[in-house]
Design brief:
Elements lengths: L2 E4 L1 H7 L4 E6 L2 E6 L5 E6 L12 H14 L6 E8 L4 E7 L4 E2 H5 L6 H17 L2 E3 L7 E3 L5 E3 L5 E3 L6 H17 L8 H8 L2
Parallel strand pairs: 1-5
Antiparallel strand pairs: 2-3, 3-4, 4-6, 5-6, 7-9, 8-11, 9-10
């Protein structure tokens, strides 16, 4: 997918009426546009970095395309932009319909015991496909209306040519466990069962 220039005037028009979904100390990072699509901004924070050769926006796009080829539901990239601000790019995409596992877990009738087999199956599929997804957590896993399990926010991902070695499986599970602890979900989330199922 080619990268086209988006002028400041066109950018301002695009985000008119948009809702800011995510921001950091630099400003807005993710916009929900009025048409339901999402605009995600990528800033190169260091003057010299690997992002000069392969921008994070390009990684985001490439990872989404590779997931799609592997049959893992994900977002649908529409356009790739270079912005007027130096070091900034943006990706316009159609979000994966559904709710994140974090959102679903807050519903009154939600059961981790019912959902755990599907979560294990998804993570095992990633590991068997050689996908190391450091940002794997409940907010990046989406269950679609058709009950398919997919991924969003896919920039922080590596693809290996073979299934993940055990050390990377363990590291992936450790990242997931830290998220559970950070979100204070330890009492409700069956982490021991998940670890037992994945680290066999």
């Amino acid at each position: 997918m080619q990268c086209s220039r988006l002028s400041q005037v066109a950018f301002n028009q695009l985000i008119l009426g948009a809702q800011i979904l995510e921001a950091d100390s630099y400003g807005a990072k993710v916009y929900l546009l009025t048409d339901g699509n999402i605009l995600k901004l990528f800033r190169r924070k260091r003057l010299i970095s690997s992002a000069l050769l392969r921008p994070y926006s390009r990684r985001f796009i490439d990872n989404a395309l590779r997931l799609e080829k592997l049959g893992i539901p994900t977002l649908n990239v529409l356009q790739h932009f270079t912005l007027d601000t130096p070091g900034m790019k943006a990706v316009l995409y159609r979000p994966l319909p559904g709710k994140t596992l974090r959102q679903l877990s807050q519903l009154p009738d939600f059961s981790w015991q019912e959902r755990l087999p599907d979560l294990v199956a998804l993570i095992k599929k990633l590991h068997q496909s050689g996908i190391y997804f450091r940002s794997l957590h409940l907010g990046n896993i989406v269950v679609t209306p058709e009950q398919q399990w997919g991924l969003i926010d896919v920039a922080d991902m590596r693809f290996l040519r073979a299934p993940l070695p055990q050390r990377l499986v363990r590291r992936n599970v450790q990242h997931f466990a830290r998220y559970i602890a950070r979100e204070r979900l330890g009492q409700e989330f069956p982490l021991v069962e998940l670890e037992r199922a994945l680290l066999v």
